[in-house]
Amino acid sequence: MTTTTPVLQVRDLRVEIGERTVLQSVSLDVQPGSLIVLMGANGSGKSTFGMALAGHPNYHVTAGQALLNGKDLVQLPAHERARAGFFLSFQSPPDIPGVKNNLFIRTALNAVRESRGETPLDAFDFLNSAKQGAKELGMPAAMLGRPVNEGFSGGERKRNELLQLTLLQPRVALLDEIDSGLDVDGVRAVVELVQRMRAQGTAFIVVSHYLQMIESLQPDQVLRLDQGRIAESGDLALARSIAETGFARANA
Ligand SMILES: Nc1ncnc2c1ncn2[C@@H]1O[C@H](COP(=O)(O)OP(=O)(O)OP(=O)(O)O)[C@@H](O)[C@H]1O
Ligand SMILES: [Mg+2]
Questions:
Q1: What is the pLDDT of residues 143-153, one digit of tens each?
Q2: Engineered SS bond to 161: which of 11, 77, 84, 89, CB 3.0-4.6 Å?
Q3: Helix or strand or coil: residue 173?
Q4: Taking a C-beta distance cutoff of 8 angstroms, is the pair 89, 33 a contact?
């Protein structure tokens, strides 16, 4: 085990949606540059965990903390969580009709850059790096000029999430089923991008149901969420045993 200070410490997080407590008490530590795979049956609360950390208003954190470099995300508005270095890639990325993709991403990037004490990128410099990023992800540059995700295919939406990830350079990124909808080249691009960003210190929490993807990500840790808690913690062997026996049998 490494002895570095975790970049993210989640402590006894309880999350309610409406009347329902979806997460009872979730605790985990994320080391800089590490990768944790979060598994769990459909409806076990994996996306809820991501939405709660990102600050979606329907997901109420009623107890616990999520300390990113010592700063409790739970106490911050959503945009301050992003500025603190948290990034969520949505399981189902929403459309934002009427808002151009390049303006959306540049605005987000410059807000994050400001919090890091960096100068804002002008339209020209931004477009150059966005086009380069899009090219690496196999995304046509024309998608930068369209409204955010409007009319994008499932895989194009996921690639657009990855473009934001690569430009924003967060400290901790939670990728919620990034592999669903991506073609084989897209999955390869994710694995390469994650590897590159981990080497630069970004930590990842990756939600996935697919063993092949999980194996190629070379996780440091695999966690299984059940009944609103981390029910099991292990390495790739845990992911392999879940793939073999299923969640229903794991809970039996
Ligand atoms: N707005 C809502 N009102 C009531 N229940 C909700 C609401 N949003 C989510 N839930 C419930 O919370 C539970 C957790 O959902 P969540 O999306 O976090 O599951 P998940 O682990 O991501 O599942 P999947 O693998 O299918 O993506 C589910 O039972 C879901 O129906
Ligand atoms: Mg989900």
A1: 999 999 999 99
A2: 89
A3: strand
A4: no
pLDDT in tens, 10-66: 999 999 999 999 999 999 999 999 999 999 999 999 999 999 999 999 999 999 999
Q: Which residues' Cβ are closer than 6 Å to ligand 1?
A: 17-18, 20, 22, 40, 42-48, 58, 91
Cα(38) to ligand 1 centroid in Å equals 15
What's the token pair of residue 150? 């409007």
3-class DSSP assignment, residue 237: helix
Q: Which of 44, 174, 175, 179 to mutate to test the pocket of ligand 1 (most atoms within 8 A of CB)?
A: 44
- What is the residue type of 215? E
Distance of alpha carbon 226 from the chain centroid: 20
Which domains are present in the chain? Answer: 8-96+170-251 (3.40.50.300)
